[in-house]
Design brief:
The complex is a heterodimer of chains A (112) and B (112). With 112 residues, chain A is mostly beta strands. In chain A, strands 2, 5, 6, 10, 11 and 12 form a six-stranded mixed sheet that branches. Chain A has a four-stranded antiparallel sheet with strand order 3-9-8-7, with no helix packed on it. In chain A, β10 and β11 form a beta hairpin. The termini of chain A are far apart. Chain B has 112 residues and is mainly beta. Chain B has no helices and eleven strands. In chain B, strands 2, 4, 5, 6, 9, 10 and 11 form a seven-stranded mixed sheet that branches. Chain B has a four-stranded antiparallel sheet with strand order 1-3-8-7, with no helix packed on it. The chains are: A mainly beta (112), B mainly beta (112). The interface between A and B is medium-sized, with 23 and 24 residues.
């Protein structure tokens, strides 16, 4: 079945550091891929998405590229801020039934 | 555009009691989802509605959980009787014509 594996956290960085959160997936066919962010006490917000191979999703300085050959969708940001502290979830959408499968989430803490 | 609304935001009950959560999706969104998010894990789909019909409830513990969306708009998720392991955040999401799901703030349930 479909599954998503994220790097385990927590990840702690200093402000302006480079961020990478690894995400790999297992799926039949060609899913769409998403990163969601969950700030403390809130629901999930869509951060970025990519719907086909080699697509790059980007938003708020975050980027992720859909790599079919390595079945990956790693999240990157060149310079993190304290306000980026949150839990980040990688997810895939199976296009035939629009079901989202989530990874376990990675807690990011950015210190000033 | 208003987002997905959920209530209550927090609920504390004792085991074997019953509880109900309410969700109002984004206006015009035909598809509505209920997820369970246990601490430290990604959301897990419980049930998916298309208008007022159930599309997928394969992960719903039907001996104690029930959900309805009678008029194809808002929805209610009920647990009766609650168990300790039901302590989690219950997220509602909705989707329009595109693939993106939009999430509400969630209801945090603690079963004592």
């Amino acid at each position: 079945g479909n599954s998503v594996t994220q790097m385990e956290g927590p990840v702690t960085l200093s402000e302006e550091a480079f961020l990478t959160i690894n995400c790999t997936y297992t799926a039949t066919g060609y899913p769409s891929l998403f990163w969601y962010v969950q700030y403390p006490g809130e629901g999930l917000q869509l951060l970025l998405k990519a719907t086909k191979a080699d697509d790059k999703g980007s938003n708020k300085g975050f980027e992720a590229t859909y790599r079919k050959e390595t079945t990956s969708f790693h999240l990157e940001k060149g310079s993190v801020q304290v306000s980026d502290s949150a839990v980040y979830f990688c997810a895939l959408l199976y296009n035939s039934n629009y079901k989202l499968t989530f990874g376990k989430g990675t807690l990011l803490t950015v210190n000033p | 555009e208003a987002g997905v609304a959920q209530s209550p935001r927090y609920k504390i009950i004792e085991k074997r009691q019953s509880v109900a959560f309410w969700c109002n999706p984004i206006s015009g969104h035909a598809t509505l989802y209920w997820y369970q998010q246990i601490l430290g894990q990604g959301p897990k789909l419980l049930i998916q509605f298309q208008n007022n019909g159930v599309v997928d409830d394969s992960q719903l513990p039907k001996d104690r959980f029930s959900a309805e969306r009678l008029k194809g708009v808002d929805s209610t998720l009920k647990i009766q009787p609650a168990k300790l392991e039901d302590s989690a955040v219950y997220l509602c999401a909705s989707r329009g014509e595109r693939k993106t799901q939009y999430f509400g703030p969630g209801t945090r349930l603690l079963v004592l």
